Amino acid sequence: MPAPIRLRELIRTIRTARTQAEEREMIQKECAAIRSSFREEDNTYRCRNVAKLLYMHMLGYPAHFGQLECLKLIASQKFTDKRIGYLGAMLLLDERQDVHLLMTNCIKNDLNHSTQYVQGLALCTLGCMGSSEMCRDLAGEVEKLLKTSNSYLRKKAALCAVHVIRKVPELMEMFLPATKNLLSEKNHGVLHTSVVLLTEMCERSPDMLSHFRKNEKLVPQLVRILKNLIMSGYSPEHDVSGISDPFLQVRILRLLRILGKGDDDSSEAMNDILAQVATNTETSKNVGNAILYETVLTIMDIKSESGLRVLAINILGRFLLNNDKNIRYVALTSLLKTVQTDHNAVQRHRSTIVDCLKDLDVSIKRRAMELSFALVNGNNIRGMMKELLYFLDSCDPDFKADCASGIFLAAEKYAPSKRWHIDTIMRVLTTAGSYVRDDSVPNLIQLITNSVEMHAYTVQRLYKALLDDISQQPLVQVASWCIGEYGDLLVSGQCEEEEPIQVSEDEVLDVLEGLLVSNLSTPVTRGYSLTAIMKLSTRFSSLNRIKKVVSIYGSSIDVELQQRAVEYNALFKKYDHMRSALLERMPIMEKTATNGPAEIVQTNGETDSTILDTKHLPNITQPASQANDLLDLLGGNDVVPVIQTTVPTKPASAGGELLDLLGDLSLTGGPTPTPAPSVPMSQPPFLLDGLTSQPLFNDIAAVIPPMTAYNKNGLKIEFTFERSNPNPNIAVITIHATNSTEAEMTEFVFQAAVPKTFQLQLLSPSSNVVPALNQGSVTQVIRVLNPQKQQLRMRIKLTYTHKGSPVQDLAEVNNFPPQSWQ
Question: What angle (nearest 5°) sits at the alpha carbon of residue 604, between those of residues 602 and 606?
Answer without folding.
Answer: 60
